[in-house]
Amino acid sequence: MAAHRLAIEMPHSSHRLTRVDARLKVVCGAVLLGLVTSSSEMMFPLLVALLSLTLCLALGVSPKTLLFRFSEPLLIATVVLLLKLFSAAGAPLFTLNLLGHQLVAHRDGLLEGGRIASRIAGAVTVMAAVGFATPFTELMAALSWFKVPQVLVDISLFAWRYLFLLFEDAQVVYHAQKNRLGYVGYARGLRSMGTLAGVLVIKAFDNSQQITTAMVQRGYDGDLPLLRHRPFVPLEVFFCLLFLVAMAAVRSL
């Protein structure tokens, strides 16, 4: 667990991109999100998604991790595509008989659903690439530099730090229940899951009380110290601007 935690907090630090200023990566990610979500075609969001996936693989992220990370967005994109495909008007493509109902697929719905699904894929992969390439503490420090409300930054830091402790508590309780045959049968499994959820809520509340007391005793006044940013490197700024100009030019083609 400690090794897993370290791998998440300091992602792939050997890659050159992880040493680029986090503020520049946030700017690139935000601009790319704007370009992707405002695109009226499928090709540009799909190109951004392909570039982001390639970057994630270059950072050393395993395909299994990527599949797990993108499973929910892919499901949402698929549902949107199917809804548009069978609910829009226009020239019919094919007919599908399902449980006595006739579903007609339309060409306009396929195009519109494809555009929305491509935007979802492009936006999600951009955020994943920025997350994998930036240690979480640096990302929060960059958001604080951009004047994101300090309350949101502090809550995110606390949640990130103590989520792992809560996960460890959940593992301990789960394995104890499993060793006592707490998940044998559907009904018993549901009761065990309810007990596990209740225990985690109580543990989270107790931990919050203990953490608050400990931090106040150590002089916490509501302001967490964050990383100090080094001055911008002109070469990094130049390549950031060049990349954004190139992506904007590709989008306008």
Structure description:
This protein is 72% helix and 5% strand. It is flat. It has nine helices and two strands; from the N terminus they run H-H-H-H-E-E-H-H-H-H-H. The chain folds into two domains: 155 residues, no CATH class; 68 residues, no CATH class. The N terminus is likely disordered. It is mainly alpha-helical and 253 residues long. Strand 1 and strand 2 form a beta hairpin. Keywords: Cell membrane, Membrane, Transmembrane, Transmembrane helix.
The radius of gyration computed from the alpha-carbon positions, rounded to a whole number of angstroms, is: 23 Å
Number of beta-strand segments = 2
The description of the largest β-sheet is: 2 strands, antiparallel
Q: Spans of 5+ residues with little confidence (pLDDT < 50)? A: 1-11
Keywords: Cell membrane, Membrane, Transmembrane, Transmembrane helix
Membrane topology: Multi-pass membrane protein
Protein name: Cobalt ECF transporter T component CbiQ
GO biological process, one term: cobalt ion transport
